[in-house]
Design goal:
single chain, mainly alpha, 13 helices, 68% helix, globular
């Protein structure tokens, strides 16, 4: 029998998934949208499909962690689950209103931790392990981007330059009995192949988002045995897809334009690093922030590209006086091979803005504000109105 509380739980979980879709789609597809290789509607459709794959496979591990390891599974009554999900959704909605890709995993864990603090059932060991991953992931993302930008990017750019021509990538040849897809008037086979690779990697990133973020919408309901895990994945995917087709348009614009105007090669590097960090953590059952890894990889890539104007020795000795321009990553790469430190300042003149420091500051601020709001509201509510199962 379907009860009013059950319906309310489904509605609140849908609300949370809707906001997750608004945030995570921007992170996963913002670079590709910013690089003008896909439109927002197609990005939303691909996001929904691969979120389902990620949630159905790797995401089960994260659901188990959030639904029974941070606080005991017995604590998730349907009433408590609804309240926790409500605060998760409010924390994310605050950031989505401002078009910022909030850390959904941090917000969800914060709301559950607030519940655990209030009831004295929080497993500090599990929470501590998760927080360690939160610290390590953006650092790894930054330094992976920095190393590639400083030591590998110019060489990769010369060998695998992903340049876009004007006009459509693919058109339909209607001269035969049946229309068939052919390369656009100015599209080269190399451009087509490289663009296809970027899209495949973006799908991989969507998979990693599903692996991490489906749990954020449904884990309390699964933990309280309100809904089976298979049905929960379907519910979470549908809600995330709804957000992807609607409010995600603003966050895709924010990531794709406010934060960065990435060339295709840079977008590829960012997506591979961030998605790999997220997938590895999710396979271990750790709720991880795709947003943090993505943004910090972008920042690291730009910092590494700009710092090539200093020699390695100067960087180690602290003698480098290079100006780190935020436009460095889109600078033209010299046609002749160079070694580290041989580029001149002129070689890294800005041609398009990499990232806006104020946008990065806004993103980081909401990474703190969103989880803090969810944790504080959850703790205060459960202190004022105790509820929950047996510890």
């Amino acid at each position: 029998m379907v009860t009013g509380l059950f319906l309310l739980g489904v509605i609140v979980a849908t609300f949370v998934g809707f906001n997750i879709g608004g945030s995570s789609t921007g992170v996963a597809w913002g670079p590709s949208v910013g690089a003008n290789i896909i439109n927002k509607t197609v990005a939303a459709a691909l996001m929904t499909f691969f979120v389902f794959l990620g949630g159905w496979t790797v995401g089960r591990n994260v659901i188990e962690t959030m639904g029974g390891d941070i606080v005991p599974q017995s604590m998730f009554t349907i009433q408590a689950s609804i309240v926790v999900l409500t605060f998760i959704g409010l924390g994310m909605l605050l950031a989505n209103i401002y078009g910022v890709p909030v850390s959904t995993s941090m917000t969800a864990v914060g709301a559950i931790a607030g519940y655990g603090f209030a009831t004295g059932t929080l497993d500090m060991g599990v929470l501590g392990g998760i927080v360690i991953w939160w610290i390590v992931a953006p650092i790894v993302g930054f330094w992976c981007g920095a190393v590639v930008g400083r030591y590998l990017y110019p060489s990769l750019d010369r060998r695998f330059a992903l340049e876009q021509s004007e006009g459509p990538l693919v058109t339909l040849d209607r001269t035969g009995l049946l229309p068939r897809p052919v390369l656009g008037p100015k599209t080269t086979s190399r451009e087509f192949a490289s663009t296809l690779i970027v899209l495949i990697i973006a799908c991989y990133m969507s998979f990693s988002a599903g692996a991490s973020n489906v749990a954020n919408a449904v884990a309390p309901l699964v933990g309280g045995e309100v809904i089976e895990i298979e049905a929960a994945v379907l519910l979470g995917t549908g809600a995330i897809g709804l957000g992807a087709f609607t409010i995600a348009r603003r966050t895709m614009e924010s990531v794709g334009n406010d934060l960065t105007a990435l060339p295709l090669l840079a977008a590829t590097i960012v997506m591979v690093v961030a998605a790999s960090i997220t997938t590895v953590a999710s396979s271990l059952g750790v709720p991880i922030s795709l947003a943090m890894s993505t943004v910090m990889t972008i920042v690291g890539l730009g910092w590494g590209r700009a710092s090539r104007t200093a020699t390695a020795g100067e960087m180690v000795k602290g003698e480098a006086k290079t100006e780190i321009t935020v436009d460095a990553i889109t600078a033209e790469t010299p046609s002749e091979p160079t070694t580290i430190g041989e580029e001149t300042t002129e070689d890294v003149q800005p041609v398009a803005q990499l990232f806006d420091p104020s946008a990065v500051a806004r993103f980081v601020s909401f990474w703190i504000i969103g989880p803090s709001v969810a944790t504080t509201l959850s703790y205060a509510f459960f202190i004022a109105i105790p509820m929950g199962g047996a510890a």
